[in-house]
Specification:
Pfam families: ATG8
CATH architecture: Roll
Shape: globular
Structural class: alpha+beta
InterPro entries: Atg8-like, Ubiquitin-like_domsf
Number of domains: 1
Protein name: Autophagy-related protein
Distance between the termini: 30 Å
Strand order of the largest sheet: 2-1-5-3-4
Number of strands: 5
GO molecular function: phosphatidylethanolamine binding
GO cellular component, one term: autophagosome membrane
Number of helices: 4
CATH topology: Ubiquitin-like (UB roll)
Radius of gyration: 15 Å
Strand content: 25-35%
């Protein structure tokens, strides 16, 4: 059953670093043409949680295809919602900033640039905004 709770713990809060590293290495070894992604909802988002935040996506897929995958997983058919996928960047001074995923970018390029330096996963957050009515 999917969880609609507002209690929010990130993947990193729940899974220890060593276990995350092991999972990443397993996925990369077993599926070398896929990018291991952790896909979680934005903290204040009202959408349901995914059953599994771990996603393997073909490295040639684009941001647009990731959005379609997300809509399918969430069973979101509303035409009144626009979905957004973000990744967090940190500058040299330690300031964090959410950056929206570009629809035309390949997942492989995004992962090479923004994957987590500790465990290797690409961490993405999703959210939506009502666009009509």
């Amino acid at each position: 059953m999917q969880n609609k709770s507002n209690t929010y713990k990130t993947y990193k809060d729940v899974i220890p670093l060593e276990e995350r590293k092991e999972k990443y290495n397993y996925y990369k070894q077993k599926y070398p043409k896929c990018v291991p992604i952790i896909l979680q909802r934005q903290n204040n988002c009202n959408l349901i949680f995914l059953d599994r935040p771990e996603v393997l996506l073909d490295e040639e897929k684009t941001g647009n295809q990731l959005i379609q995958y997300l809509k399918d997983q969430l069973k979101e058919k509303s035409l009144n919602n626009s979905f957004y996928v973000y990744f967090t960047t940190t500058d040299n001074e330690g300031n964090s900033q959410d950056t929206m995923l570009q629809m035309e970018d390949k997942i492989k390029q995004i992962a090479e640039k923004y994957k987590d330096k500790e465990d290797g996963f690409l961490y993405l957050k999703y959210d939506y905004q009502q666009t009509f009515g």
